[in-house]
Specification:
The chain is mainly α and about 325 residues long. Helices cover about 85% and strands about 0% of the residues.
Length: about 325
């Protein structure tokens, strides 16, 4: 097997790797890590949801009348064909987990499960975009930097608001009136839809304006392209920043992260080393599964299983150390 034979598989692995890396960072950063099987179930549900979403989007694409104006058409496609179906499915999965899972027992769980659903969706979508693309490395790199974290951020935002609806009393939401639960459930869907629509409108508009500029270059078109590019960057990175802000606020309110946050740096160095090792194993494993022969595919599966085992071990390690630290503090301050 030559390196050139593995090239398509390596590119596919690079398309999925950003989602896996962000997922491991979320798992390792949770002060009371969730059972790995619950997190991976969320990832799998997010990944599988790509299929019905794609079917709905293709159906809408054939039946939805769009404007002849390229910017208006981009907005209609971004909202009705991309944002609404995708975010409705993702938020529905997060809400179902929140209502059904016994492990959903603290506000930070909403962020973890929401991010897992969003990254599962992003991994499959990223693979479909990269597969067969003439500019594989460029598309994989651009989507890995922006689109994958963006989907994870939207999932985290939805999960944070769903957690606010479920644990509103603990987060102080009850102070804002009796309809706080309903408002948070609405915002869990509405905010990701609006952000997703703005993000995709920017992408679709840039593509349409790029074609117009190539056919008939003009200063006004170039200026508009620059403004939309700035909007795309602001929406993308702004959504990620907003997700981080919500996460920090929830963590601060429930104060569940303090025990782990105060662990000595040596604990975190070990976790980061194992996380990076697991990421490398998963990239090589996916490459072997996609492009390898019969024996190589089995090796790839073994590497992926090893990466999952590393993830589970990291979660268990942090959880055990956090519990031990908490017991020592309780023993030292019995009052």
């Amino acid at each position: 097997m030559f390196a050139s034979d593995l090239a398509p598989g390596l590119v596919a692995a690079c398309a999925i790797a950003p989602a896996l890396l962000l997922l491991w960072l979320v798992i390792a950063g949770d002060s009371r890590p969730e059972p790995p099987w619950v997190v991976w179930t969320c990832v799998a549900l997010g990944a599988v949801s790509v299929l019905p979403v794609a079917w709905i989007e293709l159906s809408l694409l054939h039946h939805l009348a769009v404007s002849f104006n390229p910017l208006v058409s981009a907005g209609e496609n971004a909202l009705w064909i991309a944002a609404v179906p995708e975010e409705t499915f993702k938020v529905g999965i997060i809400a179902a987990v929140a209502l059904r899972s016994r492990e959903f027992d603290e506000p930070m769980d909403g962020v973890v499960y929401g991010t897992a659903v969003g990254l599962g969706f992003a991994a499959v979508e990223n693979f479909l975009y990269v597969r067969g693309n003439a500019n594989l490395a460029l598309v994989a790199g651009m989507r890995g930097i922006m689109s994958v974290p963006f989907h994870g951020a939207l999932g985290a935002i939805a999960g944070a608001y769903i957690a606010g609806a479920r644990f509103g009393g603990a987060l102080g939401a009850h102070r804002h009136g009796g309809s706080w639960r309903t408002r948070r459930l609405i915002l869990a869907w509405l905010i990701p839809v609006v952000l997703h629509a703005l993000f995709d409108w920017s992408v679709f508009s840039l593509a349409a304006l790029g074609k117009l500029s190539a056919a008939a270059p003009s200063a006004s078109t170039g200026g508009l392209i620059l403004l939309i590019l700035v909007l795309w960057l602001v929406v993308g990175f702004g959504s990620i920043a907003y997700a981080v802000r919500l996460t920090r606020r929830i963590a601060h309110r429930q104060k569940a992260y303090l025990d782990t946050k105060r662990l000595p740096p040596a604990h975190w160095r070990a976790i980061w080393a194992r996380t990076l090792a697991g990421l490398g194993m998963s990239v090589v494993g996916v490459a072997l599964i996609v492009a390898g022969n019969f024996a190589a595919k089995y090796i790839g599966v073994a590497l992926l299983l090893g990466a999952v085992a590393i993830s589970a071990h990291c979660a268990k390690y942090l959880n055990d150390v956090a519990k031990a630290t908490h017991r020592h503090r309780v023993a030292a301050n019995p009052g």
